[in-house]
Amino acid sequence: MPAPKNPRPTSASAVKSQRRGPGRPAAAGNPIQRDQLLDAATDLFSRHGVAGTPIKAIAEAAGVTPALVHYYFRDRDQLLDAVVDERLQALVNQIFAAGPAVPGDPVAMLVGIAGRLIRAAAATPWFPGLWIREVVSTDGQLRDRVLNRFAMQRASAMSGPITAAIAHGQLNPALEPALVMPSLIGLTLLPLATTHIWRRLPGADAVDTEALVRHVSALLTQGLAPAPPPSDPSA
């Protein structure tokens, strides 16, 4: 009886394919699929918080296995880094990209930032909730990442021009420069994050995005405009 033939050598790629765990894609990675996972994570974090969102829930929302989430994001820290860098920071950069409507006009600059912030947040439903829940909150799991990576730098860059504008009489002298940006964020993101509360008030149903922009702009201009010169009693 003839001896059996030697089995055909198995290629390294075939062995690697056989060892690949369930749920791991054969390709090096799909950017669209990764974005879908990141979108699902960001949305769930905004509604349930980071601590209240297990990897399994992200996988279910994206229609994949938990193993695939770990394929694109090695661990939870890497996922949180991606949410901050690719979602939050990218959106904030977009909001601050445009310059003031009138060069050298600090009121127009701040009103413009507020308007862009409201419109961006209204078009990105996860933004207000995620910011209030995970950045503003004392136990927010994104707070340190946001502060260290871009928020403090943005606020510091705005502090100098605001201080100079106050000194030159372009802004209300009663303003505290360090509180202008936190106040602006509070005027814009907090109403959007608490829509489920104030919508119950009389007439609130008629408030849309542009109405909110007008409302915040009016508050800012009244509070930011320089005080009028004192009247001349001899006139």
Task: Tell me how many strands there are.
Answer: 0
Taken in chain order, the helices and strands follow as HHHHHHHHHHH
Strand content: under 5%
Report the top-level CATH class of the largest domain: Mainly Alpha
Give the count of helical stretches.
Answer: 11
Largest sheet geometry: none
CATH topology of the largest domain: Tetracycline Repressor, domain 2
Mean of pLDDT: 85
Q: Look at the helices and sheets and give the structural class.
A: mainly alpha
Give the low-confidence spans: 3-28
Helix content: 55-70%
Gyration radius over CA: 26 Å
Tags for this model:
single chain; 235 residues; mainly alpha; Arc Repressor Mutant, subunit A; Tetracycline Repressor, domain 2; 2 domains; disordered N terminus
Describe this structure in words.
The protein is built from 11 helices and no strands. It is mostly helical. The chain has 2 domains: 29-74, Orthogonal Bundle (Arc Repressor Mutant, subunit A); 85-224, Tetracycline Repressor, domain 2 (Orthogonal Bundle), CATH 1.10.357.10. Helix 6 (106-123) packs parallel to helix 9 (177-193) and helix 6 runs antiparallel to helix 11 (209-224). The termini are far apart. Mean pLDDT is 85; it is low at 3-28.
